[in-house]
Amino acid sequence: MNDTPDILCIGSVLWDVIGRCDTPMRQGGDMPGRITRLPGGVALNIAMALRRFGLNPALLSAVGRDAQGDALIDACEARGLGTNLIYRSDDLPTDQYMAVEAANGLIAAIADAHSLEAAGDKILQPLWDNSLPFPYKGAVALDGNLTLDLLSEIARSPLLEQADLRVAPASPGKALRLSPFVQAGRGTLYVNLEEAGLLCQCEFATSAEAAAALLARGAARAVVTDGGNAATAADPDTTVTQTPPPVSVTRVTGAGDTFMAAHIAAELRGLAPAEALGAALSAAALYVSGETKI
After folding, report:
1. Considering only Cβ atoms within 10 Å of each terminal Cβ, which end of the chain, N or C, has fewer?
2. CA dist 139 to 6, 71, 205, 243, 250, Å?
3. Residue 7 has pLDDT above 70, yes or no
4. Angle at 9 between CA 6 and CA 11, to 5 degrees
5. Ranges of each domain in the chain
6. What does the alpha-carbon distance between residue 97 and residue 135 come to, in Å, rounded to a whole number?
7. Which residues are CB-neighbours of 212 under 8 A, at least 6 positions away?
8. How far apart are CA 208 and CA 152, in angstroms?
9. Could you give the dihedral angle defined by the CA atoms of residues 88, 93, 95 and 101, in that order, rounded to the nearest 10 degrees?
10. What letter does residue 124 receive in the DSSP assignment?
11. What is the mean pLDDT of residues 223-246?
């Protein structure tokens, strides 16, 4: 594998433990299904998808020096991902995510990214110790599992001031962590309708309304999704809205990360805004239908 990354993926690298049921569930339900453990985390999901789209991503994250961490590093390398820049901690356990999914969507999830948060700016060491060019001018996919303080630092840091920042909140509960990028007018924000509403402190009926509001609040660029409804990519000069292709949903965890990765890959290939959004929606539809291998 080429040692020079096409893009840095900064954020959570952990184990996903996913329970799936083929029938609808309600809160408190106890149903038969399947439980799987796979490499996951927003940054890692994006990196794996970018690799499938032909790019060479490198990971900046925190992984414990424990048996779980060693197995996770091995799994990343087996998938062709750069792991030599990951911070390995002797005293922090490897993070994990647990979710329950059913035919009616995500029932509940818990993300335990405490080790990533505790590692703080140690994960950024390759940006200042000559492991990477300074200042870094390439593309960066960044997730909101980092602390608000660290994300605020990144939004204004000279380390990444010339980088092409692509930022996702990781979950609605962490949407407000993207506020520094809105305030600084930095990066492309990838959010769903709920997350856009939290950032703007209001509710939106459509992705187009949400994208316009994010730009009005200072965001440099916004890409807003709304499940099976129309998605919008907008900057001060261009707004594109498209409806994703209809598919049968077999999985949801990682769908937003696949969408984001596909959109980044399409734009790095030079596709125009409408073509890039269409490619991302198609890739996400294939993923949730189960037709894309993880």
Report:
1. N
2. 7, 28, 31, 27, 31
3. yes
4. 170
5. 7-11+41-93+113-288
6. 33
7. 234, 239
8. 27
9. 150
10. G
11. 95
Q: Does the domain spanning 7-11+41-93+113-288 belong to CATH 3.30.750.24?
A: no
Cβ atoms 108, 99 nearer than 8 A: yes
| pLDDT tens column, 153-181 | 999 988 899 999 999 997 888 899 999 99
**What's the DSSP call for residue 244?**
P
CA of 251: how far to CAs of 19, 39, 145, in Å? 10, 15, 22
**Measured between alpha carbons, how far is 193 from 103 in angstroms, rounded to an integer?**
21
Average pLDDT estimate for 261-276: 96
Quick one: pLDDT at residue 29? 85
Residue 105: strand pairing partners: 102
Which ranges in 201-272 belong to alpha helices (H)?
Answer: 207-216, 255-268
Q: Which amino acid, one-letter code, is at 63? A: V
How does strand 188-192 pair with strand 221-226?
parallel
Ramachandran angles phi, psi of 197, nearest 5°: -65, -40
Residue 211 contacts residue 234 (beta carbons within 8 Å): yes
State residue 3's pLDDT score.
66
- Measured distance CA(290)–CA(294) in Å, rounded: 9
pLDDT on residue 294? 57
